[in-house]
Amino acid sequence: MAAKTPMEKLREQCLKRGASGIKGLGRTFRIMDDDGNKSLNLEEFGEGLSDYGINLKPEEVKELFNTFDKDGLGTLCFDEFLMGLRGSMSEGRQNIVKKAFEKVDKTGDGQITPADMKVIYNVK
């Protein structure tokens, strides 16, 4: 069996914790945001992972941090982290979302407008 990447280890821990996994991780990250600037530096990020029970080597923490730090500024906001953790939607899920969108987009113009919503949604 191949060694797990830091991202795989993190996702595995979140999945093990179920719905409370991401919520718990968010709470941990807010606690680790010592200066209250709603972003984490590499040190805060590593401490947050450790407190959450994800024990990575320092080089793995740095690799994972850099994966999420898309702008390279050395800070990571929680939303940026979640978007990276979530990853891309599978093709099957994309198809379901597309079908749902098409069902709501009654005019077929590629946008969901109030007029489209009036046709499908009854407020009574």
Describe this protein's structure:
- The protein is mostly helical and 124 residues long.
- It has helices spanning 6-16, 19-32, 42-51, 58-68, 78-86, 91-104, 114-120; strands spanning 39-40, 76-77.
- A two-stranded antiparallel sheet has the order 1-2.
- The termini are far apart.
Condensed summary:
The chain is mainly alpha-helical and 124 residues long.
Secondary structure class reads mainly alpha
Strand order of the largest sheet: 1-2
Q: What does the oligomeric state look like here? A: single chain
Helices, by number, come to 7
How helix-rich are the residues, as a percent range? 55-70%
How many β-strand stretches? Answer: 2
Alpha-carbon Rg, integer: 19 Å
Gross morphology: elongated
Give the rounded overall mean pLDDT. Answer: 82
Element string (H = helix, E = strand): HHEHHEHHH
Rounded to the nearest angstrom, the distance between the terminal CA atoms is 56 Å
Strand content: under 5%
Which spans have pLDDT < 50 for at least 5 consecutive residues?
none
What kind of sheet is the major sheet? 2 strands, antiparallel
